[in-house]
User: Fold this.
Amino acid sequence: MEKLRMGVLGCSLHYSLRIAAGLRESLLVEPYAVASRDEARARKYAEDWDFSKWYGSYDALLADPQVDFVYCPLPNHLHLEYIKKCADAGKPVLCEKPVGLNAGQAAEAAEYCRKKQVPVMEAFMYRFHPQWRLAKDIVRSGELGAVLSTNGIFSYNLKDPSNIRNIREAGGGGILDIGCYTVSSARFLMGGEPERVLASYIRDPVFKTDILGSALLDFGNGRVSTFTIGTQFFPYQRVTALGTGGSLSIQVPFNMYADIPGRVTVCTDLGERVIETEIVSQYLLEFDAFAGALIGKTPVPTPITDAVANMAVLDALFASGESGKWEQVKRY
Assistant:
């Protein structure tokens, strides 16, 4: 089968650090072109990471008829603009999370691509890892009884003022960068949408970005999820689901290594067991799943409506952090 030629917008550290190696094993995706506002930088990046072509502007890459789809790892505040430009060029787009700065932008991106009949997907790679498929299957099986609560923790320590994650105007801050994961995973395991949220967070006095926050998500009928995130905090991550008949915990839920097995710990009245899943690159699985949908002309594996719903929760978290009260999650 002929591979789809991928264009990448920006000389992304995220791509080179976490994605490039896995894609060398892909039977569906060819890293074809990369673009930067600095053509010399794009050329060097192309040579380093196996791209055939390079461009000195994003628009030049989008004008290349050989590009079959686009991966967009640009800063958050540029996502909506370039999703639209991809759609105008007829290029399906896999966009890094979050797809916009708020649910309104996410809904606008979704509607724009629908009208242009161009596939778009938010790049939540964790959902493609077998440890998460296993966790979802265990929840569905009823082994844990009724799952009444989940808890997520996700943190890192980053104080560089020049890093995009610390620039508020560019969509930096913990809620947009990693809170999106703790919310997405809670929705995934709970199998629904929270009705209201209560959040508290603090901002860096210089950056003005949110750097430490906690939240309570009310899914109704006594079902709740909690999480804590931090960007100037000891690096840590874990997700746990608690049910009437047991619990499960995912050891490395999000930034999972590509060279060790996933580990899911399950506890019931029969005892505790640790299940190891296969060694995989979750990014390879994500990109292949997206490309496979394009080749087969089927819906993308994670519909863009999921991105809109996730962003609606993040909007409510920001509102609650300001009001100090419960805030309803808007439906789109």
